[in-house]
Amino acid sequence: MHIHILGICGTFMGGLALIARQMGHRVSGSDQNVYPPMSTQLAEQGIELMSDYKAENLDCKPDLVIIGNAMSRGNPEVEAVLNRGMAYVSGPQWLSEHVLQHKWVLGVAGTHGKTTTTSMLSWILEYQGFKPGFLIGGIPLNFGISARLGESDFFVIEADEYDSAFFDKRSKFVHYRPRTAILNNLEFDHADIFDDLDAIKKQFHHLVRTVPGEGLIIAPQHEDNIADVLEMGCWTPVQKTAIDDDALWRAELIKQDGSEFEVLFDQIPQGVLHWPLTGRHNVYNALAAIAAARHIGILPGDAIKALARFKNVKRRMEVIARVDGMTLYDDFAHHPTAIKMTLDGLRKQVGDEKIIAIVEPRSNTMRMGIHTQSLAQSLAEADIAIIYQPENLNWDLSALQQYADNIEIHSKLDDIIARLKKEKATGAHAVLMSNGSFGGIYQRLRDEL
């Protein structure tokens, strides 16, 4: 079968393309921005890429078109699909019907930590020889790829609450029907499609409704919004996680930065994890992954051994350069809570050393100015917080400065680079935070510093 994918360079859709290719299908696709690393990953697998959306991209007459959720009516290729009466489907629906059927699906949902936790869980299964399939919204460094079909009955998936397609406004994760479900956390996000927090809770409850009674739900002990979702109705056993507190799964911190902790299950020690990751959020991610692995029969001690060799995910506090004492990190954090957790973990690791946070407000929610006060407050652990104000942003970032005195606003990347040059010799830790390309600043900083 020839499958053509609209929005193929997105992480999710690119992952679908890789899986479809591994299943033996001919795969092509188009995207507005065809660029590495996804374009390279796809081309290496023999997938034909077309730049920009055009009706003539469909002249190859594919048997099926998979339409990404970034596509909308008015897109010339979408209009051509509809006008020509071509068969089309959303990515999550195709995945559900052609890959996840008859699989033991382990789904990881939540506002934060999905990609990292999915990567941890996939690696635990891999380390134990399960050879799972997976689809992850990033590139785990232990694998070097974002998706694969796998060779077992287990499939680990990042379960995103964003909508499925312009013709299917349900959250993606409703299609996945996990037997093991991790609910990491729940906050207001995706303001472009959700009116309020209650609307997101409703979608999460739709997910809960799909988990079988013989399945398992794993959630933090002190996440009130998750508790609200479960109180709407839950027909599945729930196991809770906590740090230095009472829960079925508990982590006792040995080092406060989260780089070493003991894991206890039902008050019985299971082992000590010493690893390069930091932050309480990653401790919670690890506990959830260990609990999920136990559900399919992997002993916690073996899961701990696997995580000791976990290399994290590309763009998750990834060190991209060390220049004259300055360390540059690339981090995907794009929500105030994620920014706060990342900087808190780094502060506990580096002590009094200078931290500089450089933030591009790029997500739809951030661009709408929804999180003004919480964004400013999330940067408290940074000695200097540099916020990029591009020309097309919908609000004036100077509003942030009324909530914090460490914030600088810059409208030009050249100015940000010049500012960091002044700090180069101070031994600072500079964390670049964006869920996009940040105007190519990463390579420029490596070159110019």
Q: Please name the fourth-level CATH homologous superfamily of the largest domain.
A: Mur-like, catalytic domain
What do we call the CATH topology of the largest domain? Answer: UDP-N-acetylmuramoyl-L-alanine:D-glutamate ligase
End-to-end CA span: 49 Å
The CATH architecture of the largest domain: 3-Layer(aba) Sandwich
Top CATH class of the largest domain: Alpha Beta
Helix content: 25-40%
Rg (C-alpha, Å): 22 Å
* 3D shape: globular
Describe this structure in words.
This is UDP-N-acetylmuramate--L-alanyl-gamma-D-glutamyl-meso-2,6-diaminoheptandioate ligase. It catalyses: UDP-N-acetyl-alpha-D-muramate + L-alanyl-gamma-D-glutamyl-meso-2,6-diaminopimelate + ATP = UDP-N-acetyl-alpha-D-muramoyl-L-alanyl-gamma-D-glutamyl-meso-2,6-diaminopimelate + ADP + phosphate + H(+). GO terms for molecular function: ATP binding; UDP-N-acetylmuramate-L-alanyl-gamma-D-glutamyl-meso-2,6-diaminoheptanedioate ligase activity. Belongs to the MurCDEF family. Mpl subfamily. This protein is α/β, with parallel strands linked by helices and about 450 residues long. The protein has three domains: about 1-90, 3-Layer(aba) Sandwich (Rossmann fold), CATH 3.40.50.720; about 100-305, UDP-N-acetylmuramoyl-L-alanine:D-glutamate ligase; about 320-449, Protein-Tyrosine Phosphatase, Chain A, CATH 3.90.190. The chain has 14 helices and 23 strands. The protein has helices at about 10-20, 40-45, 75-85, 90-100, 115-125, 195-210, 225-230, 280-295, 300-305, 335-350, 365, 370-380, 415-420, 440-449, and strands at about 1-5, 25-30, 50, 65, 90, 105-110, 135, 145-150, 155-160, 165, 170, 180-185, 215-220, 240-245, 250-255, 260-265, 270-275, 320-325, 325-330, 355-360, 385-390, 405-410, 430-435. A ten-stranded mixed sheet has the order 8-7-9-6-12-13-14-15-16-17, with helices on both faces. The protein has a six-stranded mixed sheet with strand order 18-19-23-20-21-22, with helices on both faces. Strands 3-2-1-4-5 form a five-stranded parallel sheet, with helices on both faces. Helix 2 links the parallel strand 2 (about 25-30) and strand 3. Helix 10 (about 335-350) packs parallel to helix 12 (about 370-380).
